[in-house]
Design brief:
The protein is an alpha+beta fold. 41% of the residues lie in helices and 12% in strands. A three-stranded mixed beta sheet has the order 1-2-3. The relative contact order is 0.15.
């Protein structure tokens, strides 16, 4: 059955995909999932903090997945009106940034475009279908600081 937010079938959990790709072991995933129960954070962040997976390896893994386009936010101008669709706190917490809207489709840059929970929450918040694109974490953080500034309201820029 297709997902209403993206129109795609639900993906396997990211941990299972990482095991299948040979990037982590089942015991490593189980340890990360156990920690996730009492620590805030995504399983991938925990795997990285434990040293079982590097951020670069994870980004390469995502880039190799079929159907996941990527974007370089450093060379992209984002219309200011998109910022009101994704609150700064949500963008920062979920490492997501709005980049385009066409009709009822919102395209967002994400560090983890396989994060179905963040995509579903964004769909509920905006009422729009969500198209995720892979983006480096550093680029998303820079875009959040550039466009949103340190306040809740969008920063003025020229």
């Amino acid at each position: 059955m297709a997902d209403q937010t993206t129109g795609k079938r639900p993906a396997k959990p990211i941990g299972e995909m990482l095991i299948e790709a040979g990037l982590i072991t089942r015991p490593q995933l189980e340890e990360a999932l156990g920690r996730q129960g009492h620590e805030k954070g995504r399983v991938v962040e925990i795997l990285i903090s434990l040293g079982y997976l590097s951020a670069e390896t994870f980004t390469r893994f995502l880039a190799k997945n079929k159907g996941i386009p990527s974007i370089d936010l450093g060379n992209y101008e984002v219309p200011a009106e998109l910022l009101s669709l994704v609150p700064r706190d949500f963008a920062k917490q979920n490492e997501v940034f709005p980049i385009d809207k066409m009709g009822s489709l919102l395209t967002v840059a994400m560090v983890c475009p396989l994060d179905e929970q963040a995509i579903a929450r964004l769909h509920v918040e905006t009422g729009l279908r969500i198209k995720p694109m892979l983006c480096r974490a550093e680029d998303i953080r820079l875009a959040i600081n550039r466009y949103y500034g340190s306040d809740e309201a969008p920063a003025e820029y020229t």
